[in-house]
Amino acid sequence: MFAEKELLLVPGPTPIPPQVQRAMMRPVINHRCPAYEELFAGLQEKLKRLFAVNGEVFVFPAAGTGMLEAIVVNFLSPNDPVLMVSIGWFGDRFGEIAERFGVNVTWLKLEWGTAATPEIVAKAMDETKKPFKAVLITHNETSTAVVNPVKDIAKVVKERGALLLVDAVSGLAAMPLPMDEWQIDAVAAASQKALMTPPGIGLVAVREEAWEAVEMAQMPRFYWDFRLARKFQSHNQNPYTPPVTLLYGLDAALDLIFDEGMDAFFERHKRVRDLLRNGIREMGLELFVPDDKIASCSLTAVKVPEGIHGGDLIRQLRNKYRIEVAGGQEHLRGKIIRISHMGYIHESDMLLALGALKSALKDLGWSRNCP
Amino acid sequence: MFAEKELLLVPGPTPIPPQVQRAMMRPVINHRCPAYEELFAGLQEKLKRLFAVNGEVFVFPAAGTGMLEAIVVNFLSPNDPVLMVSIGWFGDRFGEIAERFGVNVTWLKLEWGTAATPEIVAKAMDETKKPFKAVLITHNETSTAVVNPVKDIAKVVKERGALLLVDAVSGLAAMPLPMDEWQIDAVAAASQKALMTPPGIGLVAVREEAWEAVEMAQMPRFYWDFRLARKFQSHNQNPYTPPVTLLYGLDAALDLIFDEGMDAFFERHKRVRDLLRNGIREMGLELFVPDDKIASCSLTAVKVPEGIHGGDLIRQLRNKYRIEVAGGQEHLRGKIIRISHMGYIHESDMLLALGALKSALKDLGWSRNCP
Is A253 in the B-facing interface, judged by CB distances under 8 Å? Predict the structure, then answer.
């Protein structure tokens, strides 16, 4: 009976609001007709507001990983020197994609669980003396639940004349990232994170000032070609069939975000995060990222107490309490669990998560050691 | 009141059966959990049956165009000589993608409205004396409503030792294309055509014997990398977040196809096509492709009578009769309309289409000239 009752707390896909679910039930329409053009025109306006950008927001049938590739092939040429600031698994993937396409990647790999700082980035750019075409960085690193101070990093990058290309797949809408104000040249995002829509839509926003770089880039491209997409988008069209039902959902989700208010949306994410973090501390568990200043508002990583394996904890939460959380990646496998609070997440969901976590740990024989 | 009442007869997206619609209402789940792995394992089995292939079927969050790019970057290397057999707009696109990636394309462009033949392809391969790595061809050309005789063309291509890479985006499931039996090395498809699922899923099937070519190809790739996808698929997983809700739909749609029976599914497409073509002829209208032997079972192109513009006819069908059909592309704009009968299309839909077409033409002042 409870097969479809589940609290989905993995960092994407995230829970779908009923308003979004209902919007997606509308019948599929022809993507070459006035009704679609009206939908897509409205969507483009809303997306520009979401990214706080005056340039273009491109909409692809794709996963977030595709958007990282789209940024690489639209902004860079083979052998371009770039600085890859990686603080975890997704930073590594972004850089790996760039290397795969022949980009000359200088790695600034920081310890998992820490954030980059403007000082570290400035030093890395200055020391190597390479004429970096771009700095690639993750906004919110999903593998460690850390958010990078993109605003301050943007300043040192722009002072040095490089492009700033940001993976915000799991950060956008959960935390502020006003593109024009911060001078971010490109931002990648995806539907299934804080945007509360099922997976299948990838987004890249491009700042108007960065458009010339797209025109100059020499990487071969067709599917991801922003030049082609831009030509079609100016007529509220796409170069190929868009994921219509998912776009209905995204459109409804954006309405929900603007109805709540973007600032209120950010504030709620912070509030929900704090409720969870306080509860974790009170329970006597350890946060993987103790420093609130770099702790993500998208998700929280919790250390699994010694003597318990993360996999067992995840299965117990799933099977007994119908709560789905994520484990750790790479060397953190079994050692942390990651609880998402992106998008359609309410304080009450966190209360339930805390209660279930406590119960599941007890089931597995854990007893609180500290006072 | 009738805003959402529409008979969708464009060649993709196509109507969604209620069974598929309901399946997509299931809640989104974590793509890294046993329930997803079960879904994806079943889906892979069904897809192999659909493509009639023993190799792999890759599932991407993408449009059909992405699948053409995926074939190019996974099978070819820069400067590889290939023969592009194009009989229309989508053949041209396939070849354009290959050229964009530095492939050495020899074009065999045939007149729009005609099909390729094994003789023409053999002659083109023999005359140029190029060591063609591959022949690229469209199964069903959506712009002209023509189907190529892929079975016979495959024979001459295999005799000459080249790979056969097929765009079957609008043909798969509407007409037979058994990959292993016909020795087709790769086939591209998409969800929103005869597969009766909303747009957003791209598919490429690869014959086991063709796998070595994928390993040897030198084109840079990450998102489309079949090697990466294969590694994950062997554990019923994907390299990045799959479009879960659309996969629910595809799974349900495949069940509908197998419940009807694949042969019966093909037969119905032919029957529905014949009903439409006979009706068009009886009405005194001209078919763009008079020859039944090369006429597509996916869609039918009808010449717009002289004195009437195709755009007006499309708008009349849309606004007065709530039927959505497609126009012509390139030099056929305004001169033909294209009526899809892919997927969830019943004889009764064609009766309605015929009735509406007759009425719309009358509204526009057409009177039948011939007896």
Answer: no
Q: In this predicted model, what pLDDT tens digit does every residue of A277-292 receive, in sequence order?
A: 999 999 999 999 999 9
Structure token pair of residue B169: 């985006």
ipTM: 0.97
Tens digit of pLDDT for each residue in B259-279?
999 999 999 999 999 999 999
CA-wise closest residue to A94 among A125, A74, A70, A130: A70
Within a domain: residue A369? no
A326 interfacial to chain B (CB closer than 8 Å): yes
Report the C-alpha gap between A271 and B127 in whole angstroms: 72
What is the secondary structure of B347-366 as a DSSP string? HHHHHHHHHHHHHHHHHTT-
If you ran DSSP here, which 8-state letter would residue A27 be given?
P
Specify burial of residue A161 (Cβ count, 10 A radius: 0-12, 13-18, 19+). Answer: exposed
Chain Cα centroid distance, residue A121: 21
Predicted local distance difference test score (pLDDT) of residue B369: 59
**β pairing state of A56-61 and A201-206:** antiparallel
What CA–CA distance (Å, rounded) separates B358 from A277?
67
Residue-wise pLDDT tens digits, A29-83: 999 999 999 999 999 999 999 999 999 999 999 999 999 999 999 999 999 999 9
Which residues of chain A neighbour B63 with C-beta distances below 8 Å? 61, 223, 240-243
In a domain, A370, yes or no: no
Please report, for the domain that includes residue B189, its CATH number. Answer: 3.40.640.10
SS3 readout for B30-98: CCCCHHHHHHHHHHHHHHHHHHCCCCEEEEEECCHHHHHHHHHHHHCCCCCEEEEEECCHHHHHHHHHH
Do the Cβ atoms of A4 and B25 come within 8 Å? Answer: no
Domain boundary among A239, A259, A279: A259
Distance CA A349, CA A238 (A): 38
Q: Is residue A193 part of a domain?
A: yes
Domain range for A277: 7-14+261-363
Q: Find out whether A121 and A157 touch, Cβ atoms under 8 Å.
A: yes
CA dist A119 → A128, A130, A137, A154 (Å):
14, 17, 15, 11
Boundary residue ending a domain (A241, A259, A277): A259
With cut-offs at 50, 70 and 90, classify the pLDDT of residue A352. very high
Q: Six-digit token pair at A82?
A: 């770039």
> What distance in Å separates the CA atoms of residue B230 and residue B211, rounded to the nearest whole number?
11
State chain A's mean pLDDT as an integer.
97
Q: Where residue B289 sits, what CATH number does that domain have?
A: 3.90.1150.10
B66-123 tens-digit pLDDT? 999 999 999 999 999 999 999 999 999 999 999 999 999 999 999 999 999 999 999 9
Would an 8 Å CB–CB cutoff place A30 in contact with chain B? yes
Q: What is the dihedral of CA A74, A80, A85, A86, to 10 degrees?
A: 80
A19 CB neighbours in chain B (<8 A) are none
Residue B370 belongs to a domain: no
For residue A184, pLDDT beyond 50: yes
Angle at B139 between CA B133 and CA B140, to 5 degrees: 150
* Tally of domains within chain B: 2
Share the mean pLDDT of chain B: 97
Beta bridge partners of B105: B82
User: Hey, what amino acid is at A369?
Assistant: N
CA distance B326 to B340: 8
DSSP H or E stretch at residue A95: helix A89-100
* B101 contacts chain A (CB < 8 A): yes
* Token output for A60: 């692809």
Verify that A204 and A234 share a domain, yes or no: yes
Among candidates B297, B290, B299, B294, which has minimal Cα distance to B324?
Answer: B299
Q: A199 and B242 in contact by Cβ < 8 A?
A: yes
Shared domain check, B212 and B265: no
